[in-house]
Every structure is written in C-alpha cells, then in structure tokens.
Amino acid sequence: MHRVQVLVVGGGPAGSAAAWHCAQAGLDVCLVDRARFPRAKPCAEYVSPEGSRILHAMGALETLEMQAAALSGMVVHAPSGDRIHGEFVARHGFRGFRDRGLGVRREVLDTVLLDRARAAGVQVLEQAKVEQLLQQPDGTVTGATLRTPAGERTMHAALVIGADGLRSVVSRRLGLAHQSRWPRRVALVAHYRNVSGVGTLGEMHVTRRGYVGLAAVGDGLVNVALVVPRRHAGDMRDGTAAYLTRWLEAHPTLASRFGGATRVTPVRATGPFASRARRPWHPGAILTGDAADFYDPFTGEGIYSALRGGELLTEYALSAVRASSRDVHVRALRGYERARQQTFGGKWRVEQLIGMAVGMPPLLNHAARVLSRDRDLADLLIGVTGDFVPPRAVLTPRTLLRFLGWAARSPFPPPCLV
Hints:
Layout (H helix, E strand, L loop, with lengths): L1 E8 L3 H12 L4 E4 L13 E2 L3 H7 L3 H5 L3 E3 L1 E5 L5 E5 L13 E3 L2 H14 L3 E3 L3 E7 L5 E8 L2 E12 L6 H5 L11 E9 L7 E7 L2 E7 L4 E9 L10 H10 L2 H4 L6 E2 L4 E3 L4 E2 L4 E2 L2 E3 L5 E2 L7 H11 L1 H8 L4 H34 L1 H13 L1 H11 L11 H7 L2 H4 L9
Parallel strand pairs: 1-2, 1-11, 2-8, 5-13, 11-20
Antiparallel strand pairs: 3-7, 4-7, 5-6, 9-10, 10-11, 12-15, 12-16, 12-17, 13-14, 14-15, 18-21, 19-20
C-alpha cells in the first residue's frame, strides 16, 4: 500500500501540467498512465501562442521549440470558397506570450512534459491502469487500485485528479461523464510527408461532409485531421485509412496537394466529441483537461485548456488536500468549479458559436464572406482562438453585428447596444 497527497490519473498535457504545478506547490504527487511513453495520440497537435507561457513556466518551451513548427495564424476555407485569414500579430494590439503558435507531435510534447514533471519530484508510473477508485462510505474518493506489469497496486491519496482524457475512467466511475447530443463528430488523424503548399498558417478546409485541418508539426511532417459527423462512421467499413484517402481525393483543392504525399503514420480515430462533465469535481477528486470538457476540435483549444487547467487547479488542490474537514474540502472544490467557469466560460461560448457555423454551411459561408472583407475582425477572432485575445472582445453586441455583416452593408457604424 502506498500513500501520496495527490494522485494524478493521465500523463498527457493536462496530467503533466497538474502534477508539475502541484509538486511546485509542495505537494507529494504520483502520476499514473496506462501507456508507455513516448506514445502517439490522435490530436490536432496545436499549441496556441498563450500556451507557450505555461510551457515556459514548466521549463519545456525551449526544448519544444527546437522540435516544433512555428504557426503564424490560421486560414479557414469555407464551402463557398471564401477564406477567413487571420494572424496572431495584428492591428488589434493584443499580444500573446509568443507571436506564434506551435505545431508539435504528441510523442514529443507529452514526453517532454512528463520529464518536466519527474524533474519537479513527481513519481511517474507508466503502464499503470486504474482498475477502481477507492471510496469511503460517504462516497469520498481516497485513492485507486492500479494494475501494473508487476501486479496490483493500491495507492491512497488525499485527492485524485482525473486528467485521463475524453473517455476518462475517473469521470465515468464517479458518474460525472455526460455526452452532449450535438455536435456528434469523430476524427481521423495521421501524419504525411510532402504535402504541397503547407506554410506557416494552420489550415481548415470545411465542406458539407465535414472538415479537415492541416498544420506542420516539425521534422517535415504535416498533421492531417479529418472531422466528420458520427453518422458517417458507417462509411468506414473498409477502414479508416481508406476513408481518409477517399475523402481527400474527393476534395478538388486538396487532391492535387496530396498527389505526391506519403502517409507515414497509421490513421488513428477518436470521438465522438461534445462531452462535458456534469461538474468538474467529486469529494476527493477533481477533473481537468478533456476529462472535464471537450466540445469540438475546430479551434484547437485542447492542449491550451489542458495546460491552463493544470495551472488553475493547483490553488484549489492545495486547499482541498490540507482541508481540516469535509466541508472545507468541498468548498475548495466548488471554488475550483467557479474558477473554471470564470476562466473558460467566454471561450466556451465562442467555441459553441464557431461549432454552430461549422455545422451549418450557409452560416459559415456568410461569416467567411464578411470576414474576408474585414481582416481586422478575422485577426481578432483568430486571436481569441490563440487564447491571448479575451473572448469578450468578440462577444459584444457591436462586434457580433459585424459578424452578421451589418457594418459591411452600411456606411454608418452599428448602433451601440451596450
């Protein structure tokens, strides 16, 4: 039997960030993951400009920048052919910690972050699968039983952090998992070499049959992530690789760019998306990263949310671990829930609006027409997805009217509604 103050389940960016920050705060931390690292994971592999701030704090940024591709902004191709082109350095005046995002393979990112957690004093157990959570009669979580190559192992903890992703064992075992009905999408992800025309902009190509993202991720590789409605899963009977190939070949502007390309990794699937825990805590446990919420991969929010969530929870984890009573412990966890809402609430609303537009081609076509004529607004929106422009900058009535095209049709400024 082993005892620690904090047991982190999951060794991705959310788990490593949470473990590192908790260890830096003076807590005794053990991190467990069922995988052996380095390991591949289906992901857009994009770190926003503001995500670099947390990587720098963890001592990981310099190492990662040497193995990553720099991204200066994003371009979105609507079904109509109109383009939304936005860059991180723009006239709006907001600046991120870095002027660029990063495209970096998860095998690289996760391994570097896990090493940083170890360097902070975190005990790391790979190939350790959570079999069950330990709970007191009142439901309070007190640790977990693990299955490891050496046999079963019991780990007691004052707090369990569920950072184990979209299919979180911690969330499901505690009855916190909840799947939304919309949007129900699945993703296929692979790496290619020699895709023509890939530069420093991340690309999103939206069609009526889903969308595909392209981004350089270092070492001459391009991340190709196709996202389609879940109802199309039946068309993948011949395999995910064949489906991805057919989809790219059917897209006129992409087919020629992949003519000389070679897929160099297996096609990995993930989804369906649109999940959010009923609440991000349970007595004795908290959730972070995709285990807490995952809406849609279009904005590439996942890695930043994972890193920021790990940073955010530390204050509340410290209070929960050191609480003098169950009531004080629960108050700390409720404080964490409020902090998540305050930190991510505005971005969640922006993601929902973008997800709605992506799911309704006429709406996205309209937005693309407007934004193709209003570069400042496009830069502002891309800055929000880069996590350094506050969401309130695009959620004001005045700005929303610009998205609707009011300003583009009228020579006069829109009325002030606030």
